[in-house]
Design brief:
alpha+beta; Nuclear Transport Factor 2, Chain: A; 6-stranded mixed sheet; 4 helices; 33% strand
C-alpha cells in the first residue's frame, strides 16, 4: 500500500498539541541517539585516564586507579595486580614507546562499566606487536578504576 498520496493538513506534532520542540543551548533539537551528549562521571574519568596515557604521564595515569586495581586478560587471568606492578608495567611502556598513540573508535557505557574498542599503535616493548586492537572493559568503583580487562 502506497501511503505517499495521503497528506496531513498540518505537521503531525501540531495535531498532537506538540508544536514546541525542546532545543539545546545551541538552538537545535537534542540528538538522543548521540552517545557523546550523554557524558557521565564514569566516562569522564576514563577520558581523563586516556589523556594521561596519551601524554605518557605515569603519575597522573596511575592516579585514576585504585591501589588494588587489577588488569586481566580475556580468560580472567590477572596480568598486572596492584599499584607497584602497574607502575612497573606502564612505566616501562611509556619510557620505551615515545610514539605511543591510542584511538577509540567505539564506546559503550553500562553502569559502572565502560567498554572501549581501542587501537594502540607505537608500542615498542619486547614480546608485543607494535599495534594492538582490543576491546577494553573498565570497571569503575568509588570514582577509581578497579579493574581493566583486555579482550584481544
Amino acid at each position: 500500500m502506497n501511503l505517499s498520496r495521503y497528506r496531513l493538513p498540518m505537521p503531525w506534532h501540531m495535531l498532537l498539541g506538540r508544536s514546541k520542540v525542546r532545543r539545546t543551548a545551541r538552538g537545535v533539537p537534542p540528538n538522543h541517539h548521540d552517545q557523546r551528549s550523554k557524558m557521565s562521571a564514569t566516562t569522564d574519568l576514563i577520558d581523563r585516564e586516556i589523556a594521561a596515557y596519551r601524554a605518557r604521564n605515569l603519575d597522573e595515569f596511575l592516579s585514576f586507579y585504585s591501589a588494588d586495581a587489577v588488569i586481566r586478560d580475556g580468560d580472567g587471568n590477572i596480568v598486572v595486580g596492584g599499584a607497584l606492578e602497574m607502575r612497573e608495567y606502564y612505566g616501562s611502556l611509556f619510557r620505551s614507546s615515545p610514539d605511543l598513540r591510542l584511538e577509540i573508535p567505539r564506546r559503550i557505557e553500562f553502569g559502572e562499566y565502560v567498554i572501549d574498542e581501542e587501537i594502540v599503535d607505537g608500542i615498542n616493548v619486547e614480546g608485543f606487536p607494535s599495534q594492538l586492537r582490543a576491546a577494553v572493559v573498565y570497571r569503575v568503583k568509588d570514582s577509581k578504576i578497579s579493574q581493566l580487562t583486555f579482550l584481544m
